[in-house]
Give the backbone structure.
Amino acid sequence: MSRATVLLQLLMIFSVGCATLQGFELRGNNSKPQSDWIWNQLHCWEGLLKPTQIGKIQSVWHKEGETKYQLQGEGVGTIFKVDPDTGDICVYRELDRETKDRYKLKGIVINKKTLKQIGPTTNFTIQVLDVNDNAPIFTKDPFNGTVAEMSRKGTSVLTITAHDPDDPTVNKHAVVTYKILSKQDNFYINPDTGIIYVNNSNLDRERKKDYQLIVQAKDMEVDQGGMSSSATVYISLTDINDNAPFFQHRQYNYTASEATPIGVALGRVKAEDLDEGENAKILYTVISNNIFQITTDPHTQEGVITLKKPLDFETQRLHRVHIEAENPTLVKGMKYKTSTTLVIEVLDVNEPPEFSQSRYIFRVTENQPESTSVGRVSASDPDQAKERIRYSLQDGLDLFRIEDNGMIYTREPLDREAFAWHNITVAANEVGNSNSISYAPIAIKVLDQNDNAPTLADSYYPHVCEDDPVGTVIQVISAVDMDETPPDVKFFFSIPLKVSNFSVKNNGDNTANITVNQAGFNQNEVSKFSVPIIISDNGTPRLSSNNTLEINVCSCNRDRDPINCRHIAPLSSGVTVTILLIIILCIIVTIALAVLIVRWRMQQKSAFGGLVKAPGEIREQLVQYDEEGGGEMDTNSFDITVLNSLRTKGAQPLKVTDCAPVYAQVRKPGDDMGSVVRMKKDEADGDRDGLPYDTLHIYGYEGADSVAESLSSLDVSSIDSEQDYDFLNDWGPRFQMLAELYGSDPDRESLGY
Ligand SMILES: *[C@@H]1O[C@H](CO)[C@@H](O)[C@H](O)[C@H]1NC(C)=O
Ligand SMILES: *[C@@H]1O[C@H](CO)[C@@H](O)[C@H](O)[C@H]1NC(C)=O
Ligand SMILES: *[C@@H]1O[C@H](CO)[C@@H](O)[C@H](O)[C@H]1NC(C)=O
Ligand SMILES: *[C@@H]1O[C@H](CO)[C@@H](O)[C@H](O)[C@H]1NC(C)=O
Ligand SMILES: *[C@@H]1O[C@H](CO)[C@@H](O)[C@H](O)[C@H]1NC(C)=O
Ligand SMILES: [Ca+2]
């Protein structure tokens, strides 16, 4: 027997009502008066309000007047109090079993005088007894559940749960039963498990999607009293594909311009589907039509009508297109299709004229008089209006003109040799509609006439050797013709002379050999022959040209290579007379320039009067080039030893009176290298006896725009005459002649560079 059962039995014995005394005592076996306490457990109902006695303690150690009872432990003094004399225990506060269901206390007996404990302590507990003071609590509110539409009766939807905090061991205080309070018969609930089931197997999402139920949870038995609470349950139906798509109309009307581009939507059609999501996806198909196609807009599930081929108002003005729509998925396990008709009316658009050909090729013979007809183009208005067409040429207007009927004429004779093709463009536009214009290319081929005579194919420079025997081939010539030269063209070469030292032999392949007809040449007698040659073709009309072949007479070696000819053959290796002239001109200009510079320098130098010193031994150099070309910015070459050296021989400088070294002077503040150089130069110039420490520099060509004046030292080295042309010796063999004419002492050639 469990403890609970014992307690319940005891309660039934002693209880006199819920609100009155709830305590009781367990009396021990009196046969042992030494045993300490005669009870060890008390009980108390929760929720009591007034101070209520819940029990009594007694001890064998208690003697009235001498001792008193005392409690120790949880809640003593606040919740529980004991009468010190009688041992009655009262509860002063409301207890809540759900918060704390037992209290542990100690009872002792104390001597009133000594306040000392007498006898042993006893432990006991106060058990709080359950009262059904809590209703079941739902774990959620609201509960949400989903179930597929058309689910069978008995399909479970969701489970609702509620918990009761009361003592489950006491009298069904915590036994929960469930109930649907709402008046409906679509769902039912298992009262014990809380599972909600479908009660109606015809729930249709398309009719009603969302349901709301109020459910109740109650403790105690179903029909007994008890406490209850309620919650909301939302149930929504999920979709199944139970509806096929359908068109609302048997026919849909559209209009489309014939200019509608391919791939651009010209209209939309929608098949309705009561389902949603995947079950409402629609696939459209066009039945047997190769102009239109229909695709599904993934957002709206509409059918978008587009063109596969362009529309043409003139060909077909009305299109009837049959289309079908279906769900890609099965509808209630089957395939359903619905169909409708699209009626598309084509609207006329003014289209530009159309040429009879996309391109024209005409042929016209060259050299024909003006206004020769070339050919005819034609274009027409494809629209209903059939506007008149006006033609115009876009280019080639100097050679061709076009008339209103599309005939093209020449304006002047054509020359095939100038242009073999005239590729021009013709425009056609509708009269009164300048925007409506189209173009076509015309290629006019100029047909050849034999209007050019053949000529020598090259500039030949043949020679005949003095000892060439009769029959020697001195040149193979060929000819060209500006006209079209078909493969069967025959050029014929001839010499139109009765008597000639040369003869021409046609090789039959449009070449001919010039051979010696009569031997024994002497270039001192006749140095050159001019042989006339007539070349004719076999065209119609036959044309011929007069040409002259210049044949030089030369003395030759064994291989017939010319050794000496009185007439110099023109340079053949690309060097023309013009280039040769330019080269000669350059040389002449260079010489003239040099002479001019020299003359100018001489005139300048004469201003120095007698300061010139005689040329002599060259020992050291002071050279400064102002400009020598790139990369030598730093050239500043002084041989400072000259400046530093004390003069040991010769006259003293004119202005220097003391014997201090020159370099000591240049160190004076304010002096710079320039002044030193100037001073040394003056000194040298003023020294009539000493040898000059100068270098003679002569430059033929110094380039243009130099900041420095001429680098040439010619102006300081003249001795005998004002004009010194020794430098000509240094200019090389080309100027040998000049040097011979103007040069003086050849010994002084060593003064160069
Ligand atoms: C008291 O206890 C003794 C022995 O433990 C027993 O024999 C006796 O019957 C008991 N008396 C009562 C009144 O229960
Ligand atoms: C439950 O359904 C209700 C009504 O449909 C909705 O307002 C609520 O947000 C839902 N709760 C949850 C947790 O889905
Ligand atoms: C003109 O057109 C013809 C035929 O298409 C072509 O052979 C020729 O090369 C073209 N000439 C020019 C200059 O474009
Ligand atoms: C022309 O000369 C070439 C050699 O230069 C020779 O082979 C050919 O036979 C000659 N033709 C005639 C017709 O003599
Ligand atoms: C042929 O050559 C000789 C010299 O070799 C010359 O005297 C004569 O005039 C030439 N004949 C002709 C027709 O040129
Ligand atoms: Ca559907």
Notes: Residues 718-753 form one domain. Helices lie at 3-14, 577-605, 640-644, 662-666, 673-686, 727-730, 736-742. The pocket of 2-acetamido-2-deoxy-beta-D-glucopyranose (ligand 3) is lined by residues 421, 423, 443 (CB under 6 Å).
